[in-house]
Amino acid sequence: GDTCYIAISENKIVGTMMLEKSSSYFENHIYNSFYIRHLASSVSGVGKALLVYACKLSKLSGKTHVCANCSAKNEKLVQYYLNYGFSIIGDGVDEEYNYFLLVKALI
């Protein structure tokens, strides 16, 4: 099933990430991948550590890609994904949620 990962430092939650086996946001895009949702961190370096972990786990599970979706309005998070090697492959609107679809090939 889907798994929530929580990063803890000094007994405080400093980051979270949901890793899902499927995503309705990607129903028109077929990838052998896990799907990242709700990536958040409050300490520098934690977000990257969660992304690195998601990519390693995906690769160990035989996946060829990692996908994510995030709010199109969250420019900082969009840029964060792009800086980590994700590419925007689409966008959409779900009720009032404008989002981007992102993908990263695992080499």
Describe what this molecule looks like in 3D:
By secondary structure, the chain is an alpha+beta fold. The protein contains 2 helices and 6 strands, in the order βββαβαββ. A 6-stranded mixed sheet has the order 1-2-3-4-6-5, covered by helices on one side. The model has no long low-confidence stretch (mean pLDDT 93).
Helix proportion: 10-25%
**Biggest sheet layout:** 6 strands, mixed
Shape designation: globular
Would you tell me the structural class of the helices and strands?
A: alpha+beta
Overall pLDDT score: 93
Give the tags.
single chain, alpha+beta, six-stranded mixed sheet, 6 strands, 22% helix
Element layout with pairings:
Elements: E1 3-9, E2 12-20, E3 33-41, H1 46-60, E4 65-71, H2 75-83, E5 87-94, E6 97-105
Parallel strand pairs: 3-4
Antiparallel strand pairs: 1-2, 2-3, 4-6, 5-6
